[in-house]
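Example for tutorial group B:
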C-alpha cells in the first residue's frame, strides 16, 4: 500500500528502512506504556525483515526528507475489523504527524471495505487517546483494571484501565 498526505508517505516497509526503524525502536526501551520485550540493536535485522513482509505494519515517511519517523499498525481482526496502533520517533512528536498518518490510514482502510477500526490504550497515555479523538474515533468503553504489564516493589501486579476507541466505515471521519 502507499498513501500520500500533505507531509507524509505511508507505505510498506523496505529493507533500507532498517536504521530509521532502529532509531525509534531503541527509544522505546523501558518506556512506561510498553508491554513488549525490550528492543536492542541485535534485533534490528530480524525486525526489518519481518516488517518488510508485513501487511499490518506500515512505515511513516517524511515526504521532504525521505526519513521514516515511525509506523502505523493496522492489525487484522475478526468481523472485518482492524486494530490501529502507532508509534513515532520522539524527535518528531507533537507536530501533528501522528494524527495526520492515523487519519489517512483509517480512511484508507474504510475505502478498502473495512467495517470497523478500533484502538486501545491506557487512560495514562494521553498522547495516544488524544490522537484517537483528534482523528474522529469515539470512546466506546473504559475497562476497569483489565491489564497488568508491571509489578510494584512487593511484586504485586499494577493493574491499568483500558480505553477503547473506534470508528465505523459509516462514520464521518
Ligand atoms: C501517540 C503518538 C503517535 C502521537 O503522535 P504526535 O505526532 O505527537 O501526535 P499529534 O501531534 O498528531 O497530536 C495529536 C493530539 O494529541 C495531543 N498530544 C500529543 N502528545 C501529547 C502529550 N504527550 N500529552 C498530551 N497531549 C498530547 C496533541 O495535542 C493533539 O491533540 P490536539 O490537537 O487536540 O491538541 C506519539 O505520542 C507516540 O509515538 N507515542 C509513543 C507510542 C505510543 O504510546 N503509542 C500508542 C500506544 S497505545
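The residue assignment follows.
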Amino acid at each position: 500500500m502507499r498513501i500520500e498526505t500533505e507531509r507524509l508517505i505511508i507505505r510498506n516497509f523496505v529493507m533500507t528502512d532498517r536504521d530509521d526503524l532502529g532509531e525509534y525502536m531503541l527509544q522505546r526501551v523501558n518506556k512506561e506504556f510498553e508491554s513488549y520485550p525490550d528492543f536492542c540493536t541485535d534485533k534490528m535485522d530480524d525486525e526489518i525483515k519481518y516488517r518488510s513482509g508485513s501487511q499490518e505494519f506500515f512505515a511513516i515517511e517524511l515526504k521532504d526528507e525521505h526519513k521514516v519517523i515511525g509506523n502505523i499498525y493496522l492489525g487484522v481482526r475478526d468481523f472485518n475489523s482492524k486494530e490501529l496502533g502507532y508509534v513515532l520517533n520522539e524527535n518528531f512528536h507533537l507536530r501533528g504527524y501522528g494524527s495526520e498518518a492515523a487519519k489517512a490510514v483509517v480512511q484508507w482502510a474504510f475505502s478498502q471495505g473495512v467495517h470497523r477500526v478500533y484502538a486501545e490504550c491506557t487512560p495514562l497515555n494521553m498522547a495516544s487517546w488524544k490522537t484517537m479523538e483528534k482523528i474522529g474515533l469515539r470512546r466506546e468503553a473504559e475497562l476497569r483494571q483489565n491489564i497488568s504489564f508491571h509489578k510494584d516493589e512487593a511484586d504485586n501486579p499494577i493493574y491499568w484501565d483500558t480505553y477503547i476507541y473506534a470508528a465505523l466505515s459509516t462514520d464521518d471521519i
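Residues 2-168 form a domain with the Aminopeptidase fold (CATH 3.40.630.30). Compare this with the pattern of hydrophobic and polar residues in the output above.
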